[in-house]
Design brief:
It contains four helices and eight strands. By secondary structure, it is an alpha/beta fold. Strands 1, 2, 3, 4, 5, 6, 7 and 8 form an eight-stranded mixed β-sheet that branches. Helix 3 runs parallel beside helix 4.
């Protein structure tokens, strides 16, 4: 899946990349290593001092929070660190207009609840450039993520990538909404 994601980034020449859900930073590191020298990878995860509360109520079985001390450890002290901007905060409360978009590529792999997956998708679609690519992780595996993606983007427009838990869509503006998806 990581190879697929970085291949997409290289193919489209992504210079502005957004990742929701940093975990240990391996994805951010690989995206930074496989994008042009002037690229910026923005990765979002909960802050180190997170006290266990979410902005939106999340069922216990969807609280996929890792040890806060490991967030981003893979890219720390590497040549790629300069290309990576770590944003610490709850994605449901982010000041999205403060992020350095619009993004060429967005990868959503944050909280797996329906509500968060829906809100992350809507926010990302408003901050990805026309023709930009949005990729979701755990599509087809976690029903809440799949439902949120299908309902927010339109089932027929999302393409699952065979042999992975990834789904992809191309973003495009429509006159009736700030951002939408193209087939």
């Amino acid at each position: 899946e990581l190879v697929t994601l970085v291949t997409v980034a290289k193919f489209i020449g992504a210079r502005r990349v957004l990742e929701i859900g940093t975990f240990d930073g391996n994805t951010a590191l690989n995206l930074a290593a496989n994008t042009p020298d002037d690229a910026r990878v923005v990765t979002v995860d909960l802050p180190e001092d997170w006290q266990g509360g979410f902005h939106i109520e999340v069922p216990t079985d969807h609280q996929n929070v890792t040890d806060r001390a490991v967030t981003g450890r893979q890219y720390r002290n590497t040549p790629q660190q300069a290309k990576i901007m770590q944003v610490l905060g709850d994605s449901a409360k982010l000041e999205w207009d403060q992020l350095p978009g619009p993004f060429d590529l967005a990868f959503i792999d944050g909280c797996h609840s329906y509500e968060y997956a829906t809100l992350d998708t809507k926010n990302v679609l408003q901050h990805v450039r026309p023709g930009g690519i949005v990729v979701w992780h755990d599509y087809g595996q976690i029903p809440e993520v799949s439902r949120a993606v299908d309902e927010t983007t339109g089932l027929k427009l999302v393409r699952a990538i065979s042999g992975t838990r990834l789904a992809v869509v191309i973003a495009c503006p429509l006159a009736s909404s700030p951002a939408a998806v193209c087939g």
